[in-house]
Specification:
This protein has helices at residues 4-21, 23-53, 78-85. The protein has 87 residues and is an all-alpha fold.
Length: 87
């Protein structure tokens, strides 16, 4: 859902502005204005979701997890998730 709404908004914006101002204006004026701040924002959102939901995934596919007894920091939100699981 979090990807569907911005995708739909982008489609509506693109076709709406092309219809109002023309394709030349859209590609020459609007796209350069928007693409620079959007790319770092997308990277920030992707990294947030990676930390939030995939923090326990192994770094290398197929790698075994070895318990060497070393203390590791608790993943963000782990206490919150555990407390929700308990009745």
């Amino acid at each position: 859902m979090y990807l569907g709404i911005p995708f739909l908004a982008g489609i509506i914006t693109r076709f709406g502005l092309i219809g109002l101002e023309g394709r030349d204006w859209y590609e020459r004026e609007f796209v350069p204005l928007v693409e620079v701040p959007v790319m770092p924002g997308l990277v920030k959102v992707a990294l947030y979701f990676q930390r939030r939901f995939f923090v326990q995934a192994p770094l290398v596919a197929g790698a075994e997890q070895v318990d060497d007894g070393a203390a590791r920091p608790e993943p963000a939100g782990a206490r919150h998730r555990q407390s929700k699981d308990k009745p």
